[in-house]
Amino acid sequence: MPELPEVETVRRGLAPAMEGRVIERLELRRADLRFPFPEDFARAVEGKRIAALGRRAKYLLIDLDDGMTIVAHLGMSGSYRVEANGVAETPGDFHLPRNAAATHDHVVFHLGDGRVIYNDPRRFGFMKLLTRTGLDADPSFIGLGPEPTGNSLDAEFLATRFAGKTQSVKAALLDQRNIAGLGNIYVCEALWRARLSPFRAAGHLVTPAGKPRDGLKRLVPAIREVIAEAIEAGGSTLRDHRKTDGTLGYFQHSFSVYDRTGASCRHEDCNGTVARAVQTGRSTFYCPACQKG
Length: 293
Description:
Elements: H1 4-18, E1 25-28, H2 41-45, E2 50-56, E3 59-64, E4 68-73, E5 79-84, E6 87-89, E7 105-110, E8 114-119, E9 126-131, H3 155-162, H4 169-174, H5 184-194, H6 214-239, E10 275-279, E11 282-286
Antiparallel strand pairs: 1-7, 2-3, 3-4, 4-9, 5-6, 5-8, 7-8, 10-11
Helix pairs in contact: 1-6, 5-6
């Protein structure tokens, strides 16, 4: 499933093609994706101007000028294709290639001199229509934690969430109530940067007085850095008009531990080898030699 940086690069790539444009027609080529489309979806958004494109966690937010917001999720295989002036581009850098077969084009935004097409072979994505002021009350957003790049995420906040927890720190980081939008790839990368064992109990990173220990203090900047670098790498790719077919981009080639089982650890002072384990059904990549904290 695309993670937060991938969704953010999609947002950045779509913004120039969509912001300020009027949805002249919304073409729905089937009745549903993961869920049925909202009732009268096309009629409700046609003629509306797209005020802004935003993001919350892994959700793309298409704000309309009437106070409504199209909430879109890419699911496992979703992508957008921008077609304008005879050129087609697929914004976003993904760990796995995106599909471009027209048979999987399910939603088309007709925006005057161009089109934005949503393609989803596995149809695990979805779209729904909500009032902008009612987003926080929707089940998709209730209880979401702070953004990993937001000012409200700090070691003290995580200490309040992790205190007394026996679950692993990796599982705690994947809990969207603690941090919104943080997924498996970047959790593995952040834990490696902070030299923390993914198996360590989250509560062990907090003192009996409820204060963050040094490991937790290292973890927060590691999360910020890995997310920021991934977003910037995707943004650079889009600005340079490279990899428009959605295949592997720059940052995906620079993972330090993710999917590198058997490779040498990239910490200069470590002679360890990257290993793989399974935690709660998800692959964990880590260095047993230096991630002992």
